[in-house]
Amino acid sequence: MDTENLKIQIKTFFGLEPILAEEVKKLGGRNVELKNRAVNCEGDLGFLYKINYSARTALKILIPIVEFKAFNESKFYDKLFKFEWDDFMSVDQTFAIDSTVNSERFKHSQFMTFKMKDAIVDFFQNRYGKRPSIETKSPDIKFHLHIDRELVTISLDSSGDPLFKRGYRKEQGEAPINEVLASGMLQLAGWDGKGNFLDPMCGSGTLLIEAAMIALDLPAQIFRRRFAFQNWKNYDHELFSKIKEVRVNRVKEFTGKIVGYDIDARMLNAARTNIESAEMEDIIEVRKQNFFDSKKDMFPLLMVFNPPYDERISINDDDFYKKVGDTFKTHYPNTLAWLISSDLEAVKKIGLRPSRKIKLFNGKLETRFLQYEMYEGTKKVHKLGDKE
């Protein structure tokens, strides 16, 4: 493996590719290309460690190690059996395979995963007279199999557990927002830690914690214990320790406020547990408060939230979104507010025209991330921002 010029693919959610590309450029990635739900780039081993440790909108970071065309299963097996697997793992290490198959020739991803597993195991048995073990939960080495028609790409997964698993979430609500999606939303909304932040329906506190991490410039994985690259043959412990030290030394002071409201005491307890786990009790305040009875008490203010919507949590109140709009208009003048929703008809009841609409997915749900600008007195005319 050429550790100076690694080809790197970084997975993300639909709609967050430009945010991730900016992160990659800031961290020193070369030849950055936007793909669908991914960003491709080049970098050295130090950059690979940096991106795993720091990128907020990365889901997993892959290093392609072999690519070939296969027109049938035996050709697929033969190519993999001849590959030098011991360049990337030892016979005593455990491994696992993730797969994505989009092919008329190879319709069953599970079957192709088994064929790849057989090829790896047979390679080691043939060369060393011993078979490596498969471990699905926490393998030493993780491979990713991608088949697009007849093109097969095998990658090393440098992350291990998906990077949305930050390590601070101890409790979750009925419909928690993914940490990577939360951070992406905040960055799309322009949150940079200047001013004050409010999540008026905070649930278990993910948006609040991600907002605080951005405000303090904490690396996304500061609470994470392990990465898959730490089990690689070329792992450089000293280099990774230095990268972490330099990154943590960049942490900033934050002078604003980050506040969360919720009406559910159980959710507030969950939020407090997660905030404590993230060591953010001094930065984030949560309180029992109905948003519809609240008034703006922080200046300037950015508001981002994930209101309940029908597919995830039933809303008994048909006027929910009308109340959101009324609260915006009467109690939050001169405020920028963003919310995410999959109920595109119901959000019309807000009664304000969104100045931006960004298509995102919350799990499998297609949603819109909507920006509303509230002005005191005469409303300025703004053109519609993003296309749906």
Automatic annotation (TrEMBL):
Keywords, in A-Z order: Methyltransferase, RNA-binding, Transferase
Alphabetized Pfam families for the sequence: RlmL_1st, THUMP, UPF0020
Membrane-spanning intervals of the chain: none
Key word ATP-binding present: no
Coiled-coil stretches noted in the UniProt entry, renumbered to this chain: none
Domain spans labelled THUMP: 47-158
PROSITE patterns: N6_MTASE, THUMP, UPF0020
Classification via SMART domains: THUMP
A GO MF label: RNA binding
Protein name: DNA methylase
Species assigned in the record: Chryseobacterium formosense
